[in-house]
Structures are given as C-alpha cells and as structure tokens.
Amino acid sequence: MARAVLCVLDSVGCGGAPDAAAFGDQGANTLGHIAEECAMGRAEEGRSGPLRLPNLDALGLGAAIALASGVKAPGLGAGTPRGRWAAATEVSQGKDTPSGHWELAGVPVPFAWHYFPVTEPAFPAALTDALIARAGLPGILGNRHSSGMPIIRELGPEHIRTGKPICYTSADSVFQIAAHEGHFGLDRLMEVCRIAAELVHPMKVGRVIARPFVGETPDEFRRTANRRDFALPPPEPTICDRVEAVGGEVWAVGKVKDIFAGHGITTVLKAPDDMGLFDRTLEAVDRAPDGALVFANFVDFDTLYGHPRDVSGYARALEAFDARVPELLARLRPDDLLIFTADHGNDPTWVGNDHTRERVPVLMTGAATPGAIGHCGFADVAESIAAHLGLAPGRHGRSLL
Ligand SMILES: O=P(O)(O)O[C@H]1O[C@H](CO)[C@@H](O)[C@H]1O
Ligand SMILES: [Mn+2]
Ligand SMILES: [Mn+2]
C-alpha cells in the first residue's frame, strides 16, 4: 500500500512570484541568485565553484527555476528531468512558514496575519500588561523589532539580573520571547509563551516563539535547540488531519508539529540540524507503516543562511542536502511518492533579512510518472498526496499525478 514523503526545504524558492512586487521582492530568486553567485566565484567560503546539485536537478530543479522565473540557473537544468516537476505559486497573503506549509498541506490562509508595527514599543500596552499580570512577570524587556542574537546579547545581562523576559518581533507575524534556560528556566519560559499565545492568537498573530538561550556573558550567549513555536492552528483540516482521519500515521520530522499546532500529527522525530533531520527522515521512511505521510521540514537553509544573507553557507547547505538525496531514493518502496518542495523564498543576495515572495519548485519521484507539469498551486501538493494515498479530494487544489 502507498505512502507519501513530503520534504520541505525551508525557504528554497525559485523566483518569479507574480505578486512579488507587492512584497518589495520583484526579482528575488533564492535558487537562481545562489547559482549565479556560485558561477561567478562569489560563494567560496567552505565550498568552491558552480553550484552542484546533480540529484535534485535530475528530478527537475533547474527546469522548475527556469519555468518559475525565466532564469537559466548556471549549472542546472541541462538534461531531461527524471522527476515529475512543477513550479508552484502561493495564493496565501503571507510569505511566512505557516502560510507556506498550510497551503502546501491543502489549506490556503484565508485571512491577513497581524504584524506588529516598527515602533517602540512594538506591542500594545493592553497586551504586555495582560502578559505581565497573567504570567506574574516583573516586567518585560525589548518590546521592539529585532533580530534574535543581537537583542539577546544586548539585553541578556539585564534579563538574568531582573527576570524580565526579552520580547521582540520581526517582519513575520510573531511574538518572540527569549529567556535564559537556567536563570529563568525552560519550563517557565514555555508557560509564559503559552499565556502569550492565548493573548495574541485572537489578534491573528501567527506564532509565539520560545527562544531559550544559555551562557553567562554576551560573548557566550547562544540559543539552544529547545526553541518552540506556539502556532495558531490551521483554519481547516490539512492533509495531516485527513490522513489521520482515515487511520493513517503522520510522521512529522523537525518543526512540522509546531507549524500545525500538533493537529493531525501522530509521531514526531527531531534533530538539532538539517543533516540530523535527514537521518530522522530516513528513519521515518524505514519505519512508517503503509498509508503514512512522512512530512519533513529542513529549517537550516532559512535560519542559518537565508536570514543572515550568507550565500556561501546557503550553497554549502544545498550541496550537502543534495548529496544525501540518493540515500532517500534508495529507501523508497515501490508505492512511495516522494516530493521535494519549499514554503517561501529567502534570497541571501536580497536586501534586508526577511523572507522573499517567490514561487517554489515541486519535484516528485517514486510513484510519479516523469514529466513536466508546468505551473501549479501550493495546495496541489496536498491533493497529489491525497490522490496517491486514496483519500477523498479536498476543497483546494488538484492532484498533479
Ligand atoms: O532573528 P531571529 O530571532 O532568529 O528571528 C527569525 O526567526 C523568526 C521565526 O522563524 C523569524 O520571524 C525571524 O525573524
Ligand atoms: Mn519557512
Ligand atoms: Mn524564516
């Protein structure tokens, strides 16, 4: 009986979104620009030369980039793809992780997220007063837009001294809380985040994110793998709920459970980095029973290399991932459908530090006839999985099989 394996390479977009200009992202192209920088010898840290992704490219990666954006990515797209490939366009209004994943799982986001203004304070007093009162806090620090490590280095000593957590936001619809694992306590941080989530979810803020850190001085501060996202649940049943509803198992690898607020997830496998997550994905493919969906997210592309605008690092991570694709292919059973895709862009050559609105590649193999599909929607990924697993069609999208 059939199984499906969905691998989301976080932020690995391929340009060309028709509404990119509305996001200030006209021309952004994560894969296309990384390939160009590599070909020009401008991504030489820890790697060298043209971007080498032979395994993903054989499934149609270069073809998807060219279709999505019109860019012929150097070194990619030479042969005829052995995969069934497409370029997917998002309809949800956000270029964020929940929007991308929910729509890939068959549920476009029907509302606009709330974003906190770029002011100081960034959070309304009614919100911070309620959080302080309900969580019994001596106050909060931060209360502005920031990137995570700078604000931890700046306010960490005062946080340790006073017990006030560091609250900040970003261009995403997020309320982030950084606190020291030892001095403040991990359980206490999670409790404060739970209360914050109850307060901000009704405002349509997508996530509260716990950002625990360790270390005793600003130089030593580092965040731990105990990050946790408290996400708003999806507004309709996703492919995860639909698989679970017919008795199937849904194996979530990495942060997938958090993204879906736990809905429709039956087994969770975690690891501290993408190579570890690849190992967990292989383990899931070995162990998941018939009828299962294995749903993996590979977050390092986005967090470690996209946001910090590290082109060499992003290229290295792509090459390391690509080199392991044959291990996954070798483990597939004859009835398994394998899909590689992404949730949004995060072009490391672009201005700023935010995600970029882009199309994403959809590369299918295993139980999928090779060929070009052309353009598709994010929700078509879920409907392809539904069709493959013999589930009833959903409300959005169509099967690409
Ligand atoms: O700088 P850090 O704290 O990693 O923040 C990043 O992490 C958040 C969630 O992925 C995003 O909103 C982005 O701003
Ligand atoms: Mn993402
Ligand atoms: Mn991100």
From TrEMBL:
Main localisation: cytoplasm
GO molecular function ontology, one term from the record: manganese ion binding
Alphabetical list of InterPro entries matching this protein: Alkaline_phosphatase_core_sf, DeoB, Metalloenzyme, Phosphopentomutase_DeoB_cap_sf
Example of a GO cellular component annotation carried by this entry: cytosol
EC number, as in UniProt: 5.4.2.7
Note describing how the cofactor binds: Binds 2 manganese ions.
Pathway, per record: Carbohydrate degradation; 2-deoxy-D-ribose 1-phosphate degradation; D-glyceraldehyde 3-phosphate and acetaldehyde from 2-deoxy-alpha-D-ribose 1-phosphate: step 1/2
Transmembrane segments annotated in the record for this chain: none
Metalloenzyme domain span: 3-392
Keyword Isomerase: yes
A biological-process GO annotation: nucleotide metabolic process
Residue numbers binding Mn(2+) 2: 302, 307, 355
Domain of life: Bacteria
Binding site for Mn(2+) 1: 10, 343-344
Keywords: Cytoplasm, Isomerase, Manganese, Metal-binding
Catalyzed reactions: alpha-D-ribose 1-phosphate = D-ribose 5-phosphate; 2-deoxy-alpha-D-ribose 1-phosphate = 2-deoxy-D-ribose 5-phosphate
Cellular localization per UniProt: Cytoplasm
Cofactor (UniProt): Mn(2+)
Record function comment: Isomerase that catalyzes the conversion of deoxy-ribose 1-phosphate (dRib-1-P) and ribose 1-phosphate (Rib-1-P) to deoxy-ribose 5-phosphate (dRib-5-P) and ribose 5-phosphate (Rib-5-P), respectively.
PANTHER family, per database record: PHOSPHOPENTOMUTASE (PTHR21110:SF0)
Alphabetical list of HAMAP family matching this protein: Phosphopentomut
Family named by the database record: Belongs to the phosphopentomutase family.
Protein known as: Phosphopentomutase
Gene name as annotated: deoB
